[in-house]
Amino acid sequence: MKKSLVALMALSVAGTALAQSSNVTLFGVVDASFARISGKGANVTGLANGSQTSSRLGLRGTEDLGGGMAAGFWLEGSVGVDTGNASGFSFDRRSTISLLGNFGEVRLGRDKIAAYPTIETFDPFGDIGVGGVGGANMLANAANAAGGSASGTTIEGSAPKRASNTVNYLLPKLGGFYGQAQYTFGETASNAVNDKRGDAYSFRVGYASGPVNVSGGYSQLRGGSATNRVDYKSSSIGASYNFGIVKPMVLFATERGGGQRIDLLELGATAPLGAGELRAAVSRFDLKDSANDSRKFALGYGYNLSKRTQVYATVARVTNSGAATRGISINGLASPGVAAGGNSTGYEVGVRHAF
Questions:
Q1: pLDDT for residue 136 is more than 70
Q2: Mean pLDDT: which of 15-19, 38-42, 182-186, 225-229 is highest?
Q3: Model confidence over 199-228: pLDDT tens digits?
Q4: Is 3 helix (H, G, I), strand (E, B) or coil?
Q5: Rounded Cα gap, residues 290 and 294, in angstroms
Q6: Per-residue pLDDT tens digits for 289-331
Q7: Which residue intervals of the chain are DSSP H helices?
């Protein structure tokens, strides 16, 4: 019954949009891979989902309002190719409405945290799949950052990829400069002890022109329990330069909160090779005042069968020191876990099609 209602709602939205909007696009990505992850004396083998590009299905459109203004909407949900998303479909990736003009864009709804694109832009693997650097939520997951509650009204970790209830402002085109400012409402009652729990603000600024791209971002969110405040602060900066034969990139990110700090440094590169692209990255996670550090190496290649279809393969290895237990995590395939100070290895071979 729930699935039928969701389907009817999606079709209703699509039909209304097609009738009233001047520009509507149905789009998506289907990406699945055969993968294997080992660690803690065991391994897991099976199908992973969205390891090259996150699988998705969405609708987006704009309406010309005249006078240089436009209205826009974007509805995008995750698709589990390996399972068909048996638990149901929702617009969990993005659900926004916007007003656009010479002033820039004002955007409301669920969206990426403004600072997060710096992480995925300067990771050769886009922060997904076995090769992804894992630069989000390095200190705390959704339940921990929210004080034990991962409800939809709380932000989803110490430095998450996305959040609900956001208000955004994006700069208009200013040469190569770009930027975004964002505020997230935790929607906690004002009479609560930790009344700003779930609130957050974030921003990102950058410059991209020709072969150069550089950006930096910052975010701060309120987590903790209903009575105990914990502020999580994260910052990142990245840069790349496309020489044509190779595009090297560097990323530095840090998170602080709850008396802890973790730093991430990644050096990576992409290079055209044949009809595809070679990707490589080495990264280090440094937990301050601790010997519990981690290193990761990843190497991959994507071969373009067409403009929309690619086959790819990636291999990665994580080594831990001290009591660190960082491993390899991918969507759709459970990890066997990592012993304290142990290692984790993963590989995947897949195909991606965009439409």
A1: yes
A2: 182-186
A3: 999 999 999 999 999 999 999 999 988 888
A4: helix
A5: 11
A6: 999 999 999 999 999 999 999 999 999 999 999 999 999 999 9
A7: 2-20, 117-121, 142-145
Interacting residues of 312 by C-beta distance below 8 A, sequence separation 6+? 33, 51, 52, 300, 301, 302, 303, 348, 349, 350, 351, 352
* Structural contact between residues 239 and 214, judged by C-beta atoms closer than 8 angstroms: yes
Strands (E), the chain: 23-39, 42-49, 56-66, 69-78, 94-101, 104-112, 162-170, 177-184, 200-209, 212-224, 229-241, 247-257, 260-273, 276-287, 294-304, 309-320, 343-354
Tell whether pTM > 0.85. Answer: yes
Distance CA 222, CA 163 (A): 13
Give me the pLDDT at residue 87, please: 62
The two three-digit tokens of residue 181, written as one number: 């400012």
d(C-alpha 49, C-alpha 84), whole Å: 10
pLDDT in tens, 35-45: 999 998 899 99
C-beta neighbour count of 174 within 10 angstroms = 10
Task: Read off the DSSP letter of residue 188.
Answer: -
* Beta carbons within 8 Å of 157's beta carbon, 6+ residues apart: 136, 137, 140, 141, 142, 144, 145
User: Pairing mode, if any, of strands 69-78 and 94-101?
Assistant: antiparallel
Per-residue three-class SS string for 104-168:
EEEEEEEEECCCCHHHHHCCCCCCCCCCCCCCCCCCCCHHHHCCCCCCCCCCCCCCCCEEEEEEE
CA distance linking residue 229 with residue 5, whole number of Å: 39
d(CA 38, CA 18): 47
- The token pair at 84 is 């068909």
Q: Which amino acid is at 23?
A: N
